[in-house]
Amino acid sequence: MLDIAILIPARLDSKRLKNKVILKINGLEMIEHVRRRALLNSYGVPVYVVSGDKKILNLVQNYGGLTIKTRKNHPNGFSRVMEAEKKLPFQRYILLQGDEILVDPKDLDLFIESIKTNSNAVYNAVSNIENYSEILNPNVVKCIISKRNRILLMFRKTPSVSSKNQQIKQLHKVCGLMGFTKKTIEEIGVYKVSLNSTLESIEQLTFLDIDIELKSIKITKNYPSINEKKDIKKCQKFIKHNVRQKFIWNKIAG
Question: Against a cut of 0.90, is the pTM above it?
Fold first, then answer.
């Protein structure tokens, strides 16, 4: 057994799409899509939904899922995970955002394999950017990474003046999948959420602002997450027509 747990922070008061984690997509609540996919990891790593909302906790418990109750108000998902890990015995944690509805269990396996003996760095999943519209979309967090896979900069609006094609090659999409040791979580917890993190609504900027090493793990496919109502149809299209996503859906839908 690996000394790792997957934590899915969830809340109802989403600013861009109200109650999005309990919206039903193909007849199943979004948080359940994510939780059931996480459970398909090949390592038997346990999965906990972490929330301060009774409606979310009751829903997951009624499906037989594990939950951790936190206080209701948190500035971001990492802050909620930071509270939850104090109630758990594991030494490493994976944060999987509750809107990553198309997360592939193979990518979770890759992530688990990468962090199971990691140092005190924070690991963040990234994927390729496929078109310039993602670069223009402020809902998509982008980053620049070094040749040694270190994340140097994160942003919602591109600071680059290079050509569209060059930016598509140069930039990466930041995915809602992170990994930490318990020690690193506690080290970050000493600091307040940074001003940059608050202004840009990017929780990882706190890590960069306090000089925590932030390393990227490249995952296989750039799947959409759900930020706005229009994203629901995009995800449904992937589930219906993408061979891999159709296979995963059939595994979790029963």
Answer: yes
Nearest to 23 by CA among 114, 99, 95: 99
Q: Do the Cβ atoms of 246 and 239 come closer than 8 Å? A: yes
d(CA 192, CA 218): 29
What are all long-range contacts of 162-170, with beta carbons under 8 Å and residues at least 24 apart? 164/132, 164/135, 167/129, 167/132, 167/135, 168/129, 168/130, 168/131, 168/132, 168/135, 170/144
**Token pair listed for 249:** 């859906």
DSSP 136-165: H-TTS-EEEE-TTSBEEEEESS----S-HH
Q: Which of 115, 114, 109, 93 is nearest to 37 (CA)?
A: 109
Structure confidence by residue, pLDDT tens digits, 177-203: 999 999 999 999 999 999 999 999 999
